[in-house]
Specification:
Layout (H helix, E strand, L loop, with lengths): L1 E4 L2 E4 H25 L5 H24 L4 H29 L6 H20 L6 E11 L5 E9 L1 H27 L2 H27 L8 H53 L9 H18 L2 E9 L2 H8 L1 H18 L5 E6 L2 E10 L2 H20 L2 E3 L2 E3 L3 E8 L6 H17 L5 E3 L2 H18 L7 E10 L4 E12 L3 E3 L1 H11 L2 H22 L7 E4 L2 H5 L3 H11 L7 E5 L2 H4 L2 H14 L2 E7 L6 H6 L4 E4 L1 H5 L8 H12 L3 E4 L5 H10 L3 E2 L10 H10 L7 H4 L2
Parallel strand pairs: 10-11, 13-15, 15-16, 16-17, 17-18, 18-19, 19-20
Antiparallel strand pairs: 1-2, 3-4, 5-7, 5-10, 6-7, 8-9, 12-13, 12-20, 13-14
The structure holds ligand C2E and magnesium ion (2 copies).
Ligand C2E binds next to strand 13, helix 14, helix 15 and strand 17.
Length: about 725
């Protein structure tokens, strides 16, 4: 019975061999592909080589079955031997990897060397590796009538050794398979053992039944190998599949981890770029956005604007009603700004009570853009001027706004923000609760301020600061000392008044050094005057900034200064303003009590302009109450200001001396005297004088009575 394959006709046996070869080739191809794809797998490569050898063996077997001459039969056997010899190292390599202890290094090199020797021997021996001499044998007739050629001859020494080695390799592989079955992977081990057992049976069949007993049956090795190709292929494919599943699971886990990380990153970025209280973008984010809008504006030629918004009364509310109320106010302001903002505007909180609104693409003409922005700003000012309902209170917060248009040639986003800030200062200076557009001349004012800031830092060491002394007298003309007032002679700007530079000194922190210098100078003057026997009323009053008072070291420092100069603390009156008490009343009270305990006299300056309550006033260890000039100015002969009278009365009741500041006219003096005011200070008595002028003023006046009489209350 024959099967036609084109022009070649094959019997069932050979057709089976051909199918086996095709399967082995297919599997070989598949595993060479998987072995080369990353991650590379050397076991798959070994298996692919093994399958290729088996396919060659099967094809050579077909050639032998159909040989018609001895030469053809010997050539076929030579191919069969070559395939078997080459399958040695592939088999060792594969089984080593498959059973979990790879064979590499010297062992694999030795196997490869033996393989090479046998390969060469097979190539050069006249009748292949197996026979010393061989020829075409008698045909083998299979039960279904198929006739197969065979070979017969004298077995060679090489052939016998090769057989022995083959059994050796099988024994080793079987041992590995059993070990794997027992100790590692039962299924994989069992599959390997089944394949090897089938192969061993085929080998024994060929060697014993066909060769030794001489039965006319064909060799079955190529078929037996089929189990190897299929079962091992199956096992490897299953492993591959489970590894793919593992990989997919790992990929899924990685993807979900990446997603979690991305979400965490988004959260972090939100925290980093948003204000925790209001949820609005914060300063860094506002700067980024402004930089983007500025770049867009440069490209499109459309102008945008920055609105710098600062609350007018926030500090007072925060200080007097507490931070919790302050926070609520900020939240309410953020809501109000968002509600009043044009649709595509961005609102951000820069910090404290400072907000910013960014308006993009308003108009291609900068003036038109400025006009639109100012409109928005005025609308916001009006909106923020409305009282805010916080809990049960209605609070008037109010806001001032500075507006700057961008892009502005040569100005980056930070410069635009600074321009808006300068315009904001101008709005505050102009009376608050209003909006101002940045104008170039404002820059000059800001530059001048910067110049002052720079100059002030070196003013003390450059001896640009000096003191003026303004006398204090009782109503009957007795001298009660003088108030020390600071002056700054700027090398370029000339005389700068304290109202201009003290706030700058406070903002820059220079006030501590400057304040200490004033106290030191005052002490030295008093010491010197005492030594020269000058009658200066025994006392000087110095102004102390709230920032100095808030310094925890202030009491020790000023005490050390006074004692170091050899002056009694009671000779120094420290003038404080009500704002010094606002931030933390208890801390301020503690400091004042310490100062009083050291012996300093304490005066509350500009009384009546701040917010301190009478209850607070009662608790303070004050010696003097200085009535602000604004109340004195209101004193007319026709109408006596009830507030001045009231303050004098309060001072008297609390056991304090009352001092009237800014007394300019004899009428004011007479009225104050009638109201029972203790001390007077003002141009009527004297303007602030230089030391020389003050000494001259002291020398030429005729002291009518002792000042001690007046100040001893
Ligand atoms: P102040 O302590 O209330 O000082 C009184 C201010 O009123 C002084 O202004 C003085 O020149 C001015 N003055 C005195 N009599 C009259 C008058 O009859 N009419 C008018 N119109 N003004 C009069 P000055 O010297 O410009 O000082 C302003 C403020 O600067 C001071 O107010 C004080 O708060 C602060 N200051 C001055 N020197 C120092 C200092 O050394 N340290 C600190 N921290 N502040 C100082
Ligand atoms: Mg004063
Ligand atoms: Mg004053």
């Amino acid at each position: 019975m024959m099967v036609g394959v084109g022009t070649i006709e094959l019997g069932y046996f050979d057709a089976g061999l051909l199918a086996a070869a095709a399967v082995a080739l297919g599997v070989s191809l598949q595993f060479s592909v998987t072995s080369l794809r990353p991650p590379r797998n050397s076991m798959h490569l070994a298996f692919a080589i093994l399958c290729l050898c088996l396919a060659t063996l099967a094809l050579a077997n077909i050639a032998l079955d159909n040989a018609t001459t001895s030469a053809q039969a010997i050539l076929a056997v030579r191919w069969m031997c070559a395939a078997s010899v080459l399958s040695f190292p592939a088999m060792v390599w594969f089984v080593g990897d498959y059973t979990g202890s790879p064979v590499r290094g010297i062992a694999l090199t030795a196997v490869s060397a033996v393989t090479l020797v046998f390969f060469v021997a097979n190539l050069y021996s006249p009748s292949s590796l197996l026979y010393s001499e061989a020829r075409l044998g008698g045909p083998t007739r299979l039960p279904w009538g198929e006739v197969l050629s065979s070979i017969e001859g004298t077995p060679s020494g090489w052939g016998i050794t090769f057989h022995a080695l083959t059994y050796g390799v099988f024994a080793w592989a079987l041992h590995r398979g059993i070990q794997q079955w027992r100790h590692r992977n039962r299924t994989a081990g069992l599959l390997l053992c089944i394949c090897l057992a089938a192969q061993l049976l085929a080998l024994l069949w060929g060697d014993i039944v066909v060769d030794a007993m001489g039965h006319p049956y064909p060799y079955l090795d190529a078929f037996a190998f089929q189990s190897f190709v299929l079962l091992m292929g199956l096992s490897l494919a299953t492993q591959l599949n489970s590894r793919t599943l593992q990989l997919e699971r790992a990929m899924r886990e990685l993807r979900s981890e990446a997603e979690t990380r991305r979400e965490a990153e988004v959260d972090l970025r939100h925290v980093a770029y948003h204000d925790a209280l209001t949820g609005l973008p914060n300063r860094p984010r506002a700067l980024y956005m402004l930089a983007d809008m500025d770049a867009d504006a440069v490209q499109s030629g459309m102008h945008g604007a920055v609105l710098m918004i600062d609350l007018d009364n926030f500090k007072t509310i925060n200080d007097s009603l507490g931070h919790q109320v302050g926070d609520r106010v900020l939240e309410a302001i953020a809501d109000a700004l968002l509600a009043a903002a044009p649709t595509d505007a961005t609102v951000a909180r820069l910090g404290g009570d400072e907000f910013v609104m960014l308006l993009g693409a308003l108009d291609s003409d900068p003036d038109a853009a400025a006009a639109l922005a100012i409109d928005v700003a005025r609308h916001l000012v009006a909106r923020l001027a409305l009282p805010l309902a916080i809990d049960s209170r209605m609070l008037n917060v109010g806001a001032s706004i500075g507006v700057a248009v961008f892009p502005d040639a040569g100005k980056g986003p930070a410069d635009v923000l600074r321009c808006a800030d300068i315009a904001l200062y101008a709005a505050k200076d102009a009376g608050r609760s209003r909006a101002e557009l940045f104008l170039p001349q404002m820059q000059r004012a800001a530059d001048a301020r910067l110049e002052l800031e720079r100059g002030l830092a070196t003013a003390v060491e450059n001896a640009e600061l000096s003191l003026r002394f303004q006398p204090l007298v009782s109503c009957d003309g007795a001298l009660a000392g003088a108030e020390v007032l600071l002056r700054w002679q700027h090398p370029l700007l000339g005389a700068v008044m304290p109202a201009t530079f003290i706030p700058i000194a406070e903002e820059t922190g220079l006030i501590h050094g400057i304040g200490a210098w004033v106290i030191a100078q005052s002490c030295h003057r008093m010491r010197e005057w005492q030594q020269r026997g000058v009658d200066f009323g025994g006392r000087l009053a110095v102004n102390v900034s709230p920032w100095q008072l808030a310094n925890p070291q202030f009491v020790q420092q000023v005490e050390a200064q006074v004692r170091g100069a050899g002056v009694d603390p009671s000779a120094l009156t420290l003038e404080l303003t009500e704002s010094a008490l606002l931030d933390d009343f208890d801390a301020a009270l503690d400091t004042l009590q310490q100062l009083s305990a050291v012996g300093f006299r304490l005066a509350l300056d500009d009384f009546g302009t701040g917010y301190s309550s009478l209850a607070y006033l009662q608790r303070l260890p004050l010696d003097e109450l200085k009535i602000d000039q604004s109340f004195i100015r209101l004193l007319q002969p026709s109408t006596v200001d009830p507030l001045a009278a009231f303050i004098i009365d309060v001072g008297r009741r609390l056991g304090m001396l009352t001092v009237a500041e800014g007394v300019e006219t004899a009428e004011q003096k007479a009225l104050l005297e009638a109201l029972g005011c203790d001390l007077l200070q003002g141009y009527l008595i004297s303007k602030p004088l230089t030391e020389t002028e003050y000494l001259a003023w002291l020398a030429q006046r005729n002291t009518p009575a002792s000042a001690d009489k007046v100040v001893s209350r």
